[in-house]
Write a structure and sequence with these properties.
alpha/beta; 11 strands; 42% helix
Length: 325
């Protein structure tokens, strides 16, 4: 049995409440993730258990206290991420995330990478003309690409933003749906609108869309065009065919930057059709100015339940869970 303690000095009571969480939910999670028992004793946090568990818990607690004293937000998903970094002896690298602000939104909120995987993704977008970002739901693929697009527009690096998705559910045949183009494709492109509203505000978005600076359209409407001086994002690219992906990538014009995002575990194409995203990851991996970044379940930054859901499906895929019919 090992024991270690951390003295609580120089911080406010609110910081320590934030550390423990409502109903001690944060510390309960930390104990479950590390295997150590953690409690508050006067002005000390005490961890007990086997030596590796205690070392893991105290390292994470020290980093959490440091973050709280710098007024950095702490939530349960981030605690799990810190534990995973500590297991890999990379806990100190988390400071890199707080040194790199991607963009400040219209409300003054700073958007930063929340994992090292996300930071690699953003760095690839900064460095390469084409970045392919793949990973499960909740890893921030689309939102961070949007943030980089808005930043490029603010900095006058591009003249417009073009966002597109394959409308697989409608088979890319939208003519039978009622209304104009916007009304037809809204259900498929709503996540892109939501991200832009959050980053720049609905009023600014409306003005830019009316001027043609922002364009959101289904992938089928990209055919035959040359997209120059633009930041172009293809979202949900796992649902492109090989032909569609080649068509899209060859639309790129001068002074443009392209980001392709998708989740190769959620392909909705008909059986027997090859995903253009899967193919592109192999075909383009050694092409100059192309970056391929694979995010994993450790990069999930949504509610912690999302990570648990991703992990459950991974266990099923790996044969660790059986489904009875």
């Amino acid at each position: 049995m090992a024991s270690a303690s951390i003295e609580l000095t120089g911080g406010s009571l609110e910081e320590y409440r934030a550390l423990f969480g409502n109903g001690d939910s944060n510390i309960s999670l930390l104990m479950r993730e590390t295997g150590a028992r953690v409690a508050l004793a006067d002005t000390r946090i005490v961890a007990e258990g086997d030596a590796p568990s205690v070392a893991l818990a105290t390292a994470v607690i020290a980093k959490l206290l440091d973050m709280l004293r710098r007024h950095e937000p702490v939530d349960r998903s981030f605690i799990r991420y810190l534990v995973s970094l500590a297991r890999e002896d990379e806990l100190d690298r988390v400071d890199e995330l707080f040194e790199d602000v991607v963009i400040t939104t219209h409300r003054g909120r700073r958007v930063r990478c929340k994992t090292l995987g996300q930071r690699r993704y953003v760095q690839s977008i900064r460095k390469n003309l084409l970045t392919i970002g793949v990973g499960p739901a909740g890893t921030g693929k689309t939102y961070l690409a949007m943030a980089m697009a808005v930043l490029a527009l603010r900095n006058k690096e591009v003249e417009r933003i073009i966002l597109t998705r394959p409308a697989v559910e409608a088979g890319e045949k939208l003519g039978f749906l009622p209304g104009d183009l916007s009304q037809k494709v809204d259900p498929y492109l709503r996540p892109l609108y939501d991200a832009l509203f959050d980053l720049m505000g609905p009023d600014a978005y409306q003005r830019l869309q009316e001027r043609g600076v922002i364009e959101i359209a289904p992938l089928a409407y990209m055919r035959g065009r040359t997209l120059a001086d633009a930041f172009i994002i293809l979202d949900e690219a796992q649902n492109t065919t090989s032909e569609q992906m080649k068509m899209f990538l060859t639309r790129m014009g001068n002074h443009s930057r392209v980001v392709v995002t998708g989740d190769v575990t959620q392909i909705d194409l008909p059986a027997g059709r090859t995903s253009g995203l899967v193919e592109a990851m192999t075909v383009l991996q050694d092409v100059p100015d192309v970056g391929v970044v694979a995010l994993t379940r450790t990069d999930v930054v949504r509610h912690e339940l999302v990570l648990s859901i991703v992990e459950a499906y991974e266990r099923m895929k790996n044969g660790e869970l059986s489904i009875e019919h």
